[in-house]
Specification:
single chain, 600 residues, alpha/beta, eight-stranded mixed β-sheet, five-stranded antiparallel β-sheet, 20 helices, 13 strands
Length: 600
Amino acid sequence: MASFVEPSSLEQLLENENLQTIFVGGKGGVGKTTCSSSIAIQFAKSRPDEKILLVSTDPAHNISDAFLQQFSGEPQNVHGIKNLFACEIDPTLTVESDLETIKAAAVEGMSLNDDKVAEMSKFINEFKQWVESVPGIDEAMALSSVLSYIESGEYSLLVFDTAPTGHTIRLLQLPTVLKVGLEKLQSWKSRLGGMFAQMASFFYQDSAATAQQRAMKKVEEKLETYHTNVTKIAEIFKDNLRTEFVCVCNASFLSVYETKRLISELKVSKIACYHVIVNMLMPRAFSNVTPETGGANAIYEALHVKCNLDEITARAVKDAVELCGGISRIQENYLKVLADAEGTGDEPVKLTFLPLLPAEVRGVASFSERLKRLDPRLSLRGVTQQTDTAGNVLTELSSNLEQENGNVYVADTESKFMKKSVAMEAEIYEEEEMSSYEAEVLEQLSIGDTVEIYGLKKAQELNGKTGKLGKLNEYGRYEVRLGSGKRPLLVKPDNLRRKRSDSKEKVENDSKQKPSIAMDNVTPEMMNLVQQTLMKPGGIQEVLNHHLVKEMKTGDDTEMKTFFNDIETNGLFAGLKYLSNKNVMSKLAVVAREIQGVTA
């Protein structure tokens, strides 16, 4: 651990002509907005012929307060700095705007008094809720809407004032998590196309092709846009030449260790991080106000006895010096902890120190100059280093708490979230070829089956384990429970196979017990018949009231029971995830045939 930590300025960052994107993040309340605003101002000064944009993605916006000027979702010029612009993005409004576009396209040309408008609106709202359920979709759309300014060449640099650390980590995971969700949507797009065509044909007296084009055009455009933008976001994050993340913290236990964890997450994500701003530091000379140097009592004696200062004022000065000395020594300890953090390239991060000021920072133009020049009160100049035996009541209390019951607490600063995210991303793209037998068994997987896990590369210790198959989640992964009382694992279908001994017996039993319900193959014609049946007025209720469905709802097929409960409770869109399920679709096809009066 470093004996005395010397600060550095942000000159290296501010002189980097390659930078196009800077993210400023850290724990809530440490001064991120002040620091991000200051960075933006200094870049505006160093690039006088280029436009700089400061963007707040924090739901609790503060840059309006920092500049004493009200900003909105559109870039506005910052008063007094001709080439600096700022905006405060509301992700919720961005989501609403995009999804209202889809809704407007769907009801185009319909009379507002038409009863079918309400039904169509309900249908589109269900789709809206479905899209909004994709994790990170709001941040993605808000971020991508701003990143377009860089692509246009209008702004040479964007500085992001981000939300607190937890939101930032979610933002880092966004490309992987959202890519999974959107690829699932893309895989359903062809099936959605058929459903929208049926719905549109019902509402519009047009050909099926025209109806499908009208209903699907905006949906496809949005899905493609989301997918493209997520890819761009991932590329921007990992472009170490043009993108850098600057952490902001205070020199306190919670802030320092949260910052070290954030640096670890950035490192795993391969996002450049070279600089940490430590804000609100006491003048470091206070760290020498210890019992060994005479302490605050010596100051009291000098002021009250030798200078004849009244006792109340002298004691107030003594208490203030004692408090500042204690805080300064605590900060000195955590500066040493922070100095050991390794950023990009396994090199120690560069620390920039900013002082605690006697007044609020309102209007950050003058404050921003502190990023370029070192405050002599925060360096070793003129400061005699404290002795190792120096201490105070606060540090002793901290030590006693940590060593209670013989245990010494060591903060865990290793990456957790992004390691999981990176592993998930690797699993997505590491596909294995399946034998014809495995492909056949995959098609036959049903809830309640005994399955075997195989082919995992990141968690090989699970290969060969067997368990009961649970439901398929929204990311296309099955729950697999290995034993009672254990939390279920989430496994891709590609890494599951029914136990070979169970497979043939299950298929034979199914064919013997329920020949009138299940079908061997689900053809496009059958899918179309199911869609027509469900989407006609009152279709869902007619299906739920059918005698075969009532039998299935009281039978042993858990998967069918779950399907019927989903569509009964949450409507048509809740059933979309079952479109690729052969078991559900084949049995629905039988019901649809009876309802429509179609013979085999």
